[in-house]
Write a structure and sequence with these properties.
about 300 residues; alpha/beta; Phenylalanine Hydroxylase; four-stranded mixed sheet; two-stranded antiparallel ribbon; 14 helices; globular; binds fe (ii) ion; iron
Length: about 300
């Protein structure tokens, strides 16, 4: 479970400018030369972008549109069943197409009107300071590739479906958008690796994999759960603990494997107030205050 994780495939550029995405041996597309060429092509487009330029559009293939359609068709009913109300309302407000892959600039247009967020391209992993820090400015770094078509309901790395169906919809809710901005501001206040790691850890257990109590049920708001067909039906069987920032910052988690512990807010308001207050006050002294300095800096 939670194999979707945050394991980006490394991207390199050769001296002659050739861009290569290095898929892991167990990636569903590793033995498909057409998919690998496509990943290289999209990565090159994403990398060609610089701040201030228009975000490049990808000419998605019919196969890629079909992957998007398949995921939307399977996951939408599960959102009604398992996602928190704010997410469901945000999905309706953003109203992304379900019959074709949206472009990042379309996501931006929708978000601008609702919360002021914009999407910019990333070929793969973005340095932590930059990824989190730019959230303060309402900027989200998003991949543009899609998972392999042979297994449309699984991905070992965060693809456009995770970034847009998970994060994009969440960022259409004004309070969730503000929570992301607060996390970004916290990341920028931190000058130490330990401080930044605490921001990343709390982000992981809230914005990525958070759950909350609502109407007598456990519901999900984390982008990693809500974008994953396999995981969304599993989270209620996990070990559920109350929000505990010291535990979030010290618990061992493997981003590539089953994650047995989730942290639940008492309500959506509790999430916004409690986690918001944490990010608002988080700085380089936070690891010490939580008593996790040695663990966080290890
Ligand atoms: Fe994510």
């Amino acid at each position: 479970m939670f194999e979707e994780g945050q394991l980006y495939s490394p991207v390199t550029t050769a001296d002659d400018g050739t861009v290569t995405v290095h898929l892991g041996d167990d990636h569903p597309g590793v033995n498909d030369p057409d998919y690998r060429a496509r990943r290289n092509e999209i990565a090159a487009v994403s990398m060609s972008w610089s701040p201030g330029q228009p975000v490049p559009r990808i000419d998605y293939t019919e196969t890629e549109h079909e992957v998007w359609r398949t995921v939307c068709e399977h996951i939408a009913p599960l959102h009604e069943k398992y996602a928190c109300r704010a997410y469901r309302d945000a999905v309706r407000a953003l109203d992304l197409p379900r019959d074709r892959v949206p472009q990042l600039d379309e996501v931006t247009t929708g978000l601008q009107a609702l919360t002021g967020f914009s999407y910019v391209p990333a070929a793969g992993i973005v340095p932590l300071e930059e990824f989190y820090g730019s959230l303060e400015d309402g900027v989200f770094h998003s991949t543009q590739y899609l998972r392999h078509h042979a297994v449309p309901l699984y991905t070992p790395e965060p693809d456009l479906i995770h970034e847009v169906i998970g994060h994009g919809n969440l960022l259409a809710d004004p309070q969730m958008a503000e929570l992301n901005r607060l996390a970004g501001a916290a990341a920028r206040r931190c000058e130490t690796k330990a401080g930044l790691q605490v921001v990343a850890d709390v982000f992981w257990f809230t914005v990525e994999f958070g759950v909350l109590h609502e109407g007598g049920e456990l519901r999900a708001y984390g982008a990693g759960i809500l974008s994953s067909y396999g995981e969304i039906e599993e989270f209620r069987g996990m070990q559920i603990r109350p929000i505990d920032f010291a535990a979030m910052a010290t618990i061992d988690y493997d981003i590539t494997h089953y994650q047995p512990v989730l942290f639940a807010a008492e309500s959506f308001d509790h999430l916004i107030n409690d986690v918001g207050a944490f990010f608002a006050s988080c700085d380089d002294d936070t690891p010490g205050r939580l008593g996790v300095s040695s663990a966080a800096s290890a």
